Give the backbone structure.
Amino acid sequence: MRKKPVKTLTVGILTTLLLASACSNGNNGSNGNTGNTGNTGSKSDTPAVSGNAGADANANKPASGMEEGPFGKYDPPITMTTVRSLPDVEEYRKGESLDDNLWTKDFSSILGINVVNKWKVNNKQYNNKITVSMISGDMPDFYQVDSKQLQQIVDAGQAADLTEIYEKYASDVTKQSFEEFGGIKLQGATFDGKLMALPLNGGMPGAAQMIWIRADWLKNLGLEPPKTMDDVNKIALAFTKDDPDQNGKNDTIGLNLMKDLFGGWAGIDGYLNGYHAYAFNPANASGTELIIRKDADGKPILGDTLPEVKTALGHLRDLYAAGAINKEFSVLDPSKAGDLATTSKVGMSYGEFWVGTWPINNMKKEDPKVDWKPYPIVSSDDQPVHPTGRGDVPTSFIVVNKNSKHPEAAMKILNYFHEKVSGPNKDEAYHQVKEGDKNYQVFGLSPIVGPGFSNTNQTDNDLIQDALKTGDESKLTPSAMVYYKGIKEYQAGNMEMWFWNALFGPGGAYSITNDYDKNSPPVTSEYLGQPTLSMVSKGPILRDLEIKVFTEIINGTRPLDDFDTAFVAEWNKQGGQDILKEIAESGRLK
Amino acid sequence: MGKKNWRLERPLHLMILPGLLFVLIFSYAPMAGLIIAFQDFIPTKGMFGSHWVGLEHFKYVYGLPQTRAVVANTLFISFMKIVAGLVVPITTAILLNEIRKQFFKRAIQTVIYLPHFLSWVILSGILIDILSPSSGILNQGLGFLFGAKPIFFLGDQSWFPYVMVTTDVWKEFGFGTIIYLAALTSINPMLYEAAVIDGANRWKQTLHITIPGMFPVIVLMMTLAIGNILNAGFDQIFNMYNPSVYETGDILDTYVYRLAFVNAQLSVATAVGLFKSIISFLLISLSYIIAYRFANYRIF
Amino acid sequence: MVQHKSALQRTVYVGIYCLLTLVALVCILPLINVLALSFSSNDAIQADKVTFWPVEFSTKAYHFVAQKKAFLLSIWVSIQRVGLGLLINMVLTVLVAYPLSKESSHFRLRTLYAWVFVFTMLFSGGLVPTYLIVKNLGMLDTLWALVLPGAVPIFNVILMLNFFRALPKELMEASFIDGCGHWKLLWKVILPLSTPSIATVGLFTIVGHWNEWFAGIIYMNDSIHYPLASYLQTIVVNLDISKIANIDDATYLQSLNDRAVRAAQIFLGALPIFCVYPFLQRYFMSGIVLGSVKE
C-alpha cells in the first residue's frame, strides 16, 4: 500500500494540486508585497496624526458620523473586515497579534475604524482560500489580490470604484506614492479610466543583477575584478582550475547556476545582460511575467527569443563544457545552489542586491577570511551594459468590496500606513523594532501595507554614503539610521552585521544599483498591462519549452543552433504569436 | 420469504445507514462541482454563472503535444511502483514472519515504517544530497566498491523514473508491510503444524501455506493499486524533478500543476481530474469483474 | 516448530537478519539526519556540516519550540482530532464493513451498496463544493470540519470487510442458530476475533488523521485552530526569491534560516505516532490467538 489510497483517490488530484498550487504563487505573503518604506524628501502638508486624534477635529462633520479628510475619524466607530495572508515565519512582540497590535489600536482610536480579520492563512494557501471565499460569496470589506484575480473581480463588477475616493481622501503621501515614476502604479490599477484597486507595489524597476564574487579568491589568484565578459569567463575558469581556495584540491567551480535558470540568486539574467540580452522566465513561475521588447518596426517581441540570448547561451555552454559551471545545476534549487556558496565550493554568482542577506549572510561570521563582494555587471563589447529591470508594473492590490458601506475607510488605513512608514513624519516604531536580539517588522502587521516610495532604499543609501564619509548622522532618516548603525557595528568587528555592509556599505549592493540608475538604466518590459488570456493559458507550456531548451543547450545535450529551431520557431508556433498579437492589440505598450 | 428476508436484513441496512448519510452529504453532494470541467470557470462568477464550453478543456489537454508522453510516463512509473509496492512489502512480511526473536522483529518493523512520516519536501532535500554525482554518499560508495563512474540519478533522463520508484518504495514499504503482517495472522497455525508433520521445510511451508494464505489480500491490494494507476506520486516527483528530466519524469499531475494550477485554471485541472477518475473507475470495474469471474472472489 | 537446523538453514537465517538490519538502517538514516540537525547550531547547518551527528551541539531549538505556543496548541488540536476521528472512523468502518462482508444471498443489496461507497473513492467534487458544504453546515473553525468530511474511510472499509470475510463462517452460522442477531453477533463474536484487523485499520486511521494537513488549512480561519500537520506545513518554507523587492523583504529572508528549529518541530511532530506504533504492534503480531479460539 502506498500512501492512503482513500486520500489519493478521493480528494484526488484536484485537491492535491490545488493545495500545492499556491506554493509558487507565493506573492501573497505579507512579505512578498511589503512596500518600500521611506521618504521622498518632499514636503507634505498632511496634518500630523501621530497620537493626535483631534488634528482634524475642525473638519466639517457630515451626518454619517464621519469627519472629512484623509484621516477623518468615524464616530461612532465603524468595523471594516478583511482577510490576511501570513508569512512563513510569524513573529510577534509579546501581547501583539495580527488581530491586536499597534496599528489596530491606532485605527480604532484615531480613525475610528475597527479592523476585523475574517480569516488568516499561510501565504501558500492564500489563493485557495480567496477562491473558495469568492465562490461562496463571502468577501470582506477589503482584501489583497493578484493581477489575475483583480481582473476577474473587476469583470464581475465586485470591486468598488475608487476614483472619487482617491481624489477626495488620498493623503498627499499616498498620492505622491501612487503617482511616482509616471504613475505606473495607478495605471496598473486603472480599468477603463476608473481606479478599481489600491496598488501595493510597482514603481521603480528593481531586480537588477550584479556579480557576486569571492574577492579573497580573486586575490589568491592575483586576478582583478572583471571589466568585460571575457574577464568574467576567465575568472570562472580560473576559479575552477587554479585552486582559488588554495586547499590543494580540485574542488571548486567558477559560476553558480540553479535549475530555475532565471532569478535573483545563481540565475543567468545578469550574465545575459553582458551580451545585451534581456530575458526572464524562471522554471518555477507562472510564465506570464515576460520581458517584452520592440523590434525595428515597433512591434512587440519576446526578449528571450532574440539572437543576443543565443550568443550568451553559447558562452555559458562553453563554460559548462570546461567544468566552470556546476554539473548538477539542473537539479539544484536556489537553496541548494546556496549551499554550494556557503560551503565555499563556488566563487561567483550573478544575483540581486539581497544576496548579502541570503544565502551568504553567515559566512563572514564563520570565517572572517571569506570576502564576498558585489561588482557591477560588465559588457562584452564597447556598448554600455544595462541590467534587466522588473517589478515596475504593480502585481498586488487591495480591492475594496463593492458592497462595503465605507469604501473610503480602506483609503484612510492606507493613508495612515503611509503617514507612519513612508511620509516625512514617519516613525521607525511603526516600521521595524528591535527587541532583545530580534527584529520585528511591525509594519507587516498593518492590514494594508502600502507601496510607499519604491526608491526609498536608494535614497537611504545616498544618505548613508554621505554620513560614512562625513561622520554627520543628522541627515539620516530613521530607517537609514538602522542600516548605518549596522555598518558601524560591522566595522567595529560584529560579523553578524556584515550583511548591512554588503547592502549599504561603500561599494555595496545599493551603491551599484544607484549607479545603474544614473548611468545605465535597467531595460524593462515594454508591456505595461496585466497578463493576457494567451499568456495565462499558454505561458506555462512556453516557459517549459524555454527552460528545457536553454538547460539542454547549456549542458551540451543539444547543439546551440537548436535555439532557433527548437526554441524560437516552436515558441512562435505553440502560442507565442498569439501572445504577441494580444500585446500589440492591448494598447498598453510603452 | 421476502418478509422474512427483510426482517433478517433490516439490521444490516440500519448499520450501513449512518455511513451512507455521511457519504451522501460529503461525497455525492460535492460531485455537482464537477460541472466546472465543462465551463470556463471564473470564481467571481460562481458555478452557475460561468460560461459553458462543453468538452473544450478535454480536447485542449488531449491536443497538447506533450500529453501523450506525459501519460506514458505516468503509466510507466505507476506500473513499476505497483509491482515493486507489492513485491517488497510482501517479501518483507514473509521474512519478518521467519524471525523468531520478538524484540528484533518488532524493532525492525518499527524502524522500517519511519520514513513514511517524513514528507517529501524534507526527504527530497536529503535525497538530492545523497544522490549527488559529485558529493553524494551513494555515488562515492559505488565508486569505491565498483569503481563506477558517478551517476547523475536525478538529472539523467534514463535514471530518473527508476529513482522515483526506488525512493517511493523505500518510503512506503514499511507501512505496506503492516497489512500483509495482519493478513499472516489470519492463517490458521494448524496448517503449518500439519505441514511439519508431512515433513515440509520452511521454504515449502512459505510457498504452499503462507503465500496462498495472503493471496486474497494481495489481489485486493493489487486491484486498489490499479485504480490508482494515474496517480504516480505528485508530492514526490514535484519535489525532485527538474526541467532536464521532464521527458521521462513528468507525470500527469505535475504536468497539470504547471499547466493549470500555477495560473489558477481550475476548469482545466478539474477536467483532467475527472478524466483520471473515469479511467480509475473503468480499471477498478474491470479488475473487479475479472476477479469475480475467474477467481470467484468479490474484492469488495 | 523449528527443529534442528542445517548449516544451509542457518546461513539463510543469518542472511535474513543481515538483510533486514541493513534495510532498517537505510530507513532510519533520514530521521537521524533530522534529529542531528535539530541538535546543531544554525551556522553549522548552513555551512552544510551536519549529517548524522550534531555539530556545535545545542538544545536551543528545543527550548525555542517549547515556548512556541502555536506548536503546542497544534499538538493539542491534533490529539483531539485523532481521538474524535478514530472513534467516528472506527465505528462507521465497522458498521459499514460488516454488512458488506455478507454474501449477496444473505444481504441482497450489498453489491449495490459496495459500489455506492467505492464510487466515492474514485470521484470527488473537489475542493470548492466540499468547502461550501462544510461552511453551510457551520463547521468552519471547528474540529468537526477535520473529522466529518472523511468520516467513512472507504479504503479501510474494504480492508475490514475482507478481514471479516476471512473469519470462519461456521462460527457465525453457529451463532445465528444460537439466536444471536446481527448486532449481537458483531459485538460479541466478530469484534473480539478481529483485534489484528482493528489494530491495523486503527493505525491507518490514526496516522491518516495525524498526517492530513490540507483540511486544517482550508477549513480553519485562524492558525490557532490548525492541527499539527497543517502547522508543520506552514513552517516548511518554500522560498520564492522572485518576489524580493526591497530591504524589508531581504532582511525577512534571514529569519527563514532557522533550520534547527524546523528540524526539532518535525521530529517532535512525528514522535507521538512513533510511540503509538509499538503499542498497536502487539495486536497485529498476535495471530496465534485467533487460531486457538477457532476450536
User: Anything to note?
Assistant: The first helix of chain C runs from residue 7 to 38. Chain C is about 70% helix and 0% strand. Residues 287-295 of chain C have pLDDT under 50 and may be disordered. Chain C touches chain B through 91 residues (CB under 8 Å).
